[in-house]
Every structure is written in C-alpha cells, then in structure tokens.
Amino acid sequence: MQRRTKGLCGQIFIDYECVIELGGNSLWTENQQKAIDTRDKSLLVSAAAGSGKTAILVERIVKIIIEDKVDVDKLLVVTFTKAAAEEMRVRLYKALVSNINNQEEREFINKQISNLPSASISTLHSFCLNITKKYFHVIDLDPGLNIGDDTQIAILKDKAMEDLLEGEYEKGDDRFFNLLEMFNNRRDEEQIRMIINRMHAFIMNRPFPDQWSQNALKNFTFNMEEFNNSIYYKEFIRITKKKLKSAIDQVEIANSIAGSIVNNEKIMAILNDEISQLKNLMKKLHTGYESFYNSLILVKFATLSFKCEDLDIKENIVSYRNKSKDIVKKIIDSLEFNAPDYMFEDLMDMLPEMSYLMDLVFKYHKIFRDKKLEKRIMDFNDMEHYTLEILQTKEVAKELKNYYKFIFVDEYQDSNEIQDTILTSIMKEDNVFFVGDVKQSIYRFRMADPTLFLSKQDSFRKTDEDSKETIALNQNFRSRKKIIDFINIIFENIMSKYIGEVDYDSEAKLYLGSKQPFLDEKVNVSIIHNDSDNIPSEEVMEINKIEAEAMYISNQIKELLKIKIYDQEINDYRYICYKDIVILLRTTRGWSETYYETLNNEGIPVYAESQTGYFETLEIRLLVQLLKVIDNLYQDIPFIGVLRSPVFSFTIEEITSIRIHNSKLSIYEAICSYVAEHNDSLRDKLNNMLNKIKLWKKQCRYMPINDFIWKLVIDTGYYHYISAMPGGIQRQANIRILIDRAKQYSESNIKGLFNFIRLIEGMKETKRDLTSAKVIGPSEDVVRIISIHKSKGLEFPVVFIGGLGKKMNLQDIRDPIIAHKDLGICPNYVNIKERRYSPTIFKTIAKEKLQLETLSEEMRVLYVAMSRARDYIYLVGSVNNIEQCTSKNWKTTLSEYDVSTGKSYLDWIMPVILKLPQYTDGNLKEILDFSIIKLSQIYEDHKSNQVKDKYDLQDYWQRVDNAKEISEEVRFKLEWEYKYQSSSIMPTKTSVSELKNEKKNRGNSLIKISETFNTPKFLGQDHPTGAQRGNTIHFILQHLDFNKFRNKDYNIEQEINDQIDMMVSKNLILQEDLDDFYIEKIAMFMNSKLGKRLLAAQRVYREKAFNLKKEIDDSSKDYVLIQGIIDCFFLEKNKYILIDYKSDFYADEIMKNILIQDYREQVQLYRQAIEELTEIEVSESYIYFFHNNEAVKIL
Known about the structure:
The structure is a single chain. By secondary structure, this protein is of the alpha/beta class. The protein has 6 domains: 30-145 and 379-473, 3-Layer(aba) Sandwich (Rossmann fold), CATH 3.40.50; 150-223 and 343-375, Enzyme I, Chain A, domain 2 (Orthogonal Bundle), CATH 1.10.274.50; 225-339, no CATH class; 522-609 and 780-817 and 839-944, P-loop containing nucleotide triphosphate hydrolases (Rossmann fold, 3-Layer(aba) Sandwich); 614-766, PCRA, domain 4, CATH 1.10.486.10; 990-1013 and 1022-1193, Alpha-Beta Complex (Lambda Exonuclease, Chain A). The chain contains 46 helices and 34 strands. The strands form 10 sheets. The chain has a 7-stranded parallel β-sheet with strand order 19-20-18-21-25-15-28. Helix 2 crosses helix 3 (82-98). It is globular and about 105 Å long. It starts with a strand and ends with a strand.
C-alpha cells in the first residue's frame, strides 16, 4: 500500500509503506528492510530520487522506539529544513498512534507521544541553539542571546564594514591603500568590501577559521619540491590528464579516418607524431611541474595539407585534429604566467597582501560579532561556532554522546564542514544513520559540501569494521518507466566523478519501482531555433527566446488538459488539471515574469514567485519613492514619480507647466516658485500636496517606521488602490512585508527614515532582495512556475523544464581571489608598479577546480529537475544557430573533458540524443519525442491566435487617444442630443453587477449612489453583513481542495474545518471573519445533488475572470466591454454546468422569484461568456442560495 498526502502547491509527498506485493502481503524491498532493521552499526544510506527515504527513516525510528524501547527524547534527528522537521514529527506521531495495540504498549507509547514535541527533531541550527542555551556557561556566553532576523543582521553587517574601513582610513596604513589599489576597479572601495565579505563568509564556514587561514598563508612560501608534493599539483595532474587524454583521442580518431585515404602515409606520419608527443607529455606530468612545463612549450603541430576527393572525410580529419590542437593551446595559454622561473616569486610577493587581507577579515569578524553581542543576538554561523566551541570541552561532548542513543542525519549530502564536525563530536562508531543522495546535492552556494558524503561513503566501504555499512536504495517509485530510462541514458553518458562528482554506475542509476499504471507517453525534448530572419524586422523584438519558450509551453499545456492520468487518491483516471503542472527554471529572475505574463495572456491560470526584485515591483517602488521624498524633497526622480503616482495624480501637462516655469531649479524648488507666483487651481493642488508632505515629515520623526508606513498607505488610500490593480492581493501582501521589515528595523538601534531608505538601497545594490509574499493556497488550480531548487523533494504529474539553452553561470571563477576549502587562498598576481595583473599558479588551478565543481553542481541540478516528473516531462530550450550546434557544439565524443566544456544543459543533453540512437534496452526513439521548432512558426501561431481574440481593446484605446486631441470646434459641433441616448449613459467598460444594477434602476429619473460604508471592526459589529458572508463563502469555495472530498471515508464537515484552519494558518483568511455558519452551509452544498455532481466533474473552474463585448441595445451599434468573474463551472459529459453562488435570504416564493429575476441576466451573461470563451455549450445554469440551501435552475 502507498499512502499519499498532499503538500503545498499541488505537489505530492508519497509515504512508501511498501513496494512489493506478494500474495496480498505488504513488504519492503530487501534494501529498504535492511535500512530499517540493521542495528549496532552506523549506516550510510544512498537514497535515489523517489526511493521513499523519508518513509524508511520514519519506520526505522518507530521500530527503535517501540521494539528497542528507546525513549524518543534519546534520539537526535537532524533535518535540512524546519518544514521537514515538522513533517517528521507529524509522521512519527501518526505512526506511534497506529502502533498502540495493548495496555502495556499504550502506556509506553503515550509517554513517547507526550515527549514528542520536545524531542530533538529539528534542523541542526535548532539543535545548536538548544546547546548554546543549555551550556552557555562553558564558554562564558550570554544566556539571553537569540537569533537575529535577517534585517537586523544586514544592518549590523553593513555598519561593521563601515567601521572597519573608516578605522583603516584613519590609520593611514600603506598596506590598506595598496590593497585598495590592487583590487579595486573603481575609485571607491566596493571591490574590497566584496572581497572581505566573501572571504569572511567562506572562512567562517570552516570549523577552525584561524587554523585554516594560517595553513593557507604558509602555502605561499612553497618551493618546487613542496609544490610537486602538494594538493595543488595533484589537482593539476588530475585536470590536465583529462585534457590530454581528450586531445589524444581526437587525433587518434582523425588518424583512423585518415586510414581510409589512398596515399595517406604523410598524413598518418604527422598524426602519429602528434599522438606520440601528447602521450610523452602525459608521462611528463608525473615527473614534476617544471619538467612538464618545459615539454609542453616544445610541442609542435606540423602543417597538415593533403588532397582528398571525399570532402566530408577531409573535413572530419581536420575538425578532430583542430580540436586536439585547441585543447593543447588552452593548456599552454592557461600557464602563460606560471613559468617555473618566477611563479614562486609571484606567490611570495603576494604573501604580505594576503596576510594583511586576512587580518582585515578577522578584524571585521570581531567588529561584527561585538555588534551582535551588544544587541544580544547571533546569526546561524555564530551559533554553529559557539556550539563547536562548547563541544571542544570533552565533558560536554561525552555527556551528549552518552545521552543520544541514536542519531539520524537526513539530507546528509547538504551538510557543510562545520556541521559535520559538530555531529562527529557527539556520535559513536555504531549509532548514526546518514541518509541522502549525492546526486541531489545542489546547495554548494550555501557551503554544502557533497564530498563529505562521498568520503564517508568511501571510508564505510573500505573499512573492515563491522560497525559501518552502506546501503543503496535505487528503486524509483515516482516516475514512469520511460522517464526513468531517459534519465539513465542521459546521466550514464555525462555524469562521472570528474563532472558530477559521482560515477553514474549500476548502483547510482534508477530502477523502476512503481507498480501503478502509467500512460505510455514519450519524453518530449523540444528545441526552439531562432530564425528571426523570417520574422518582420519591426516584430523581432516583440518575441524573444524566453517568450517563445513560454508560448510553446502554453500550447502544450492546452493539449495536456485533454488527457487523463491515473490518480491514486481516487483510484481512477482523471483529466489533467492546471495544478498538476509545474514549470521548472534554473533561475526565475528575468524568466518567471515573462513566462507568467505569456501564460496569463493565453488564458492559463498561473502562479510565479517574482524574482525580478521585490523592490522593483510597482507597488514597492512607488512607496519607496514617496518615502524618499518625505525624507528629502530635493530628489527630482523620486519626486516626479510621486507626482505622477495615484497618491497625488498630477498630469504630465501639470508637471510640464511647473517645470517650464523654472527649468533650472530642482522640481521641489520649481513647485515652491510656482506656488509663490501663481493663483490658480494648480497652485491649490500643489499647496495641498506640500502640506501633506510637511505633515508626514513631522509624523515620521516621532512614530516607529513601521507604524508610519502603515498610516501612510492607509491615509493616502494607496493600500486600497493597489488592491484594485491586477494581482491586488499579492501587491497588498508585498506592502505588509515591507512594513514587517520596517518593524524589524525599528527594533534595532539604528533609527530614522533616512537610515531605513539607506538600508533598502544597500539591499538592492548588494542583491539582498526580499522575496515577494506568497498568497497562493495549496488547492489553487493554477500552473506553478518555480525554481529547480524549490522543487527539490517534491513531485508533479507533469513537469516542464525551461531555459535549457541558457548559459550556466560561471561568474565565481572570475573573482580576483578564490578561496577554496582544499586549495586555500588563490589570488591573482598584482604588481601596480609594473602594471602586471595575472593569475598565480594557485589561482590557475583553483579556477579550473572551481569550474569543475560548479559544473558538477549544475549537472546535479539538472538531475533534480528531471527526477521531479511522474507522468510527463517536457524539456524545452532555445538556440540561436541550430546548424552550428548540431554540426559542431553537440558533435562530441562525450569524453569527460567534452562534457566539462558544456555551456548549457542542452550541451549535455543533445550530444547524447544525437550520438545514441540505440541503447542497451531498446531504441531511444521509442522513449523520446524530439522536435526542432522555428521561432518564426511560434510567431505565426501567436499572430494567428491574436486574430482569434474575441475581446480586442485596441479599437477602444485608439478612440480614447483620439478623444484627447479633439479641438474646441469639433467639441462644439458634438454638443447635440445623441440619437442613441442609451449608449451615452452606459460606460465603455462595466461589470456584470453594475450592468444588473443599471437595468434594475432603468426608468428612474435619478439614480442614487449609496454613500454608506461598512462599520469599522473596532466600533464593533456583532454579525457579518450579507455581503461579508458572501465574500467569505466565495473565498473558501475558491480555495477548497475538492479532491479531498472525493474519498468517501472523509467526514465532510471535518475536512472543511481542517482546510479552513489551514487557510487561517497561512493568513489567507482571518479567524474573526469565520463562524460555524460557513462550515455548515458549505457542507450542505457539498452533500446536495448539485454539489455531488461538482465533485464528480471531469474538470472544475473557479473564480474565472472574463471580458465580454456586448451590444448596448438593439437600436445601437455601440458596444460595452463587460468584465466579470464566474463563481464556478464544471465539465460534465463534454458540456459545462454553471453555478452562481448567492448569500441572499428569501422568506417566501415571492422574494425568491424577485431575486431570481434580478440575477437572471447576470447568469445569462456568464453563460454567454463561457460559451464564447470555450466554444463549449453550457447545458445547465444554477443559482445556489446558501442561506436557503437551494439550487435554482435558470432556463
């Protein structure tokens, strides 16, 4: 049996309780059972994607508790995230409850359940916090230290850097100014700030930073013998051998082709000589660097000139030989400034500067730490170092080692060196359970070190001790066979210890584990070829590669909605819905926005966490501009933005009038001058604005920044204004995030609006951006666009991986100084007097190693992305020149060196597809649907779809623009009574509700507009109004996960209550807006005949927005654009059923008929909109009155 539970955003977590079924009995696989049952040993479990590692971990813990009678508080369970820790706690609770069988067990298990909340099941950081709180006295630590929030830490970090640099400037130390000149490419100290910050972050992730620093500096005194015996030369040999092997392979291929040419003796002699030179060079590597270098510079490639009637053969010989020459040339070029004669002198020359740099780093660390201690806060790194310092006391380490009977480390591949050292301090030889998958280690940017897992694995395998063992879990219970086969084909050919840091061998590859039925669909790989020459020049910029990919994907999504997949939760097939689909991107910044806009324009409901920059969102940008103006009126750009904003709504003409009046003054001075010299309506408007700003200036001086900003957005109406914009809920949530950050700022010792603005600007400059608020619920039927990193640990029925043609980011290797855990400090050589700037031998080797490590991480990211898919996977990428890619870039031998030269994911995937039409288990074509799509074709399809759009507003906006240019003469001529009076009183754009109300009031000589407002909550209101109830019901029904109600075992009212509680916990709805009315009424609806039809529907649409162009009346040819939102409609027998929810109450049939008559046309408009939008008939329409629990059919 497999138990499936829903996670956030429609992703699925699967609890694999068994994977083999024999005679109706549920069993684990052999290796799973071994991982669960083995005792008296430390285990390292390599658990591949989809292998059910969490379920195994839970089962092992439960058995240890129940069968071995170990108290839960004697277990240490370390997870990678807080969410994982909480999920683990919940799973353990459920498992313990299900194991209560008799009175004796009941008492013991109840004790474990009661201790579960306080058990050591947490992230390592939470564990460290507990240690520092308990043993603070051991290192004389303030017991009141707490974790500082990100904003506090960022403020103190910037202040520490300011203090450091100011202090060095005041000292006037020549070494400081020399360092500034050496590593600054600008006149300010930004580069040195960056170097100090990065070096600090790096060394503080070493267990013993002082020791690491001292050892790194000692290496600068190397002589040739010490270098040849060092890790540097060992790494140089490893990398250079791969290059030379590939160079030899290329010449040998050319040589074998030359064997087919008549009179080939001269050609083959040249090629054989080159092979001999390269093989000799390979041998020289083992005689030392100087010997190798001297042999390298003597390598000669003779001129190769020959005749061959077969031009293809000649081209191949030349091509392969040139590849070999290019490899050798790159080796020579990389060592251009590393001649044995002076390379150690360069290192010695750099030693004083690097020693002084490390002094600065440690000074900075002390200033930063002291500022945190002054505030009685610490960051996560501090916590780790305090914990390690405490554990250096043998008594404490021994106490903890004896206390914890078993230690479990989840996601071990994502641990770093200091975390591993902490755990090693408290573990025994035979009581640790490590579980992870090095192929899914994708957090090197957070200092995660996959080599820890690999070295642990090697040591466990090589040891003769009975106390250590490794177990491989490589059966995948998630994906269908063709996806697994495709993943294996790709990574068997590209992943190795050289690139990927693990051999993708028989133990690492995936094996099909699921017995569930899968659709026999192929893996889809699509390449978009940029043939923009075939697109009209004026249109080329309108459709870039990102947009083209999004357009292609949107078309595929529309087709997917017609397909059924097997859903284990309902034990049946159902149609794919939007929330089954995810689009994964390597980077969402600059991509997700375009994808979102494109899919949204295509009518596909979509959600994406914007990564363009929180501070660049419209609502935050305008608000920050307003804050800047309040702080300093002499800032023209923000001031003009504020004038144009909805806060003051000045027109371009008005601003122009102000500026023309005094063009040489600042905009503020120009405004003051205008006010002084004019007496008109614009002057009054400007005076009103200046008075408001003057008031805000006073208020911000005595109010906390967070309170001031909240008052500002409410008093100006800005908060409510943005709610009416597209994505209004998201925009309001973003404002609340800024206010929350302002609250954190207010609690620091740095005060004032100026400093808060400075903090924001600093965060923008250093790219420490905030994340936009997440306002989507788990049951929302939308396509998700997320980063590959955020998809880790999740699965989706349908996965699109976009941006595969995008170049991988190798920016770190270009830093002037590279810090590496094994290679130490690796700078460029800088000689200001000689104006020489070149890589040292350390930098040359470190650059190569770091590039390989970065590419290895990228390969694992690709593996994570591909292994998220359950039923369908689409790989999409774009290239500029498909001919060059297929004939050159992707025409490789797939050697380890060839793979290391890949610049994009397509450079890894496509050579495998092009080279391997066959594989051992069958034909690649049987599992792959490969296509090349021209950009021009996507463009044509897009233009064709535009022609089909039913609601073209272009004509409307053109008329608006033309209206602005109407002359007074024309305006006079238009002052006559319009023949079609109905058109003149109807707005160009209206809503369904407005249209209903207008018809209801038609015939009245005067339409009264209500000026009443809802009673504020603080004045008290015993019961919600009908409108409030209606809004709440609509919101709940929009967010309920209907799939949960399809299981007959569910208690409907309890399920509704649970889901509403979840909405409250995520701040999607307020607790004070709720009462039992909603649960009762919604449950009655779900149990009604109409509700049951809804739950059984093929596809359900909720809160669907539309635009509909409709004639005003029969006598007029004018149209009105009607906007509306349809509550619900669902597909049943290929026809739609429409439901409109109403919270009105009727006491008798007369009132009921009046309400039906009022709403009839509204429902008919909804029906018309659905049929025009979808071209599918609406066979039935209903109004459901929740107060009366009745569905009324509208004919």
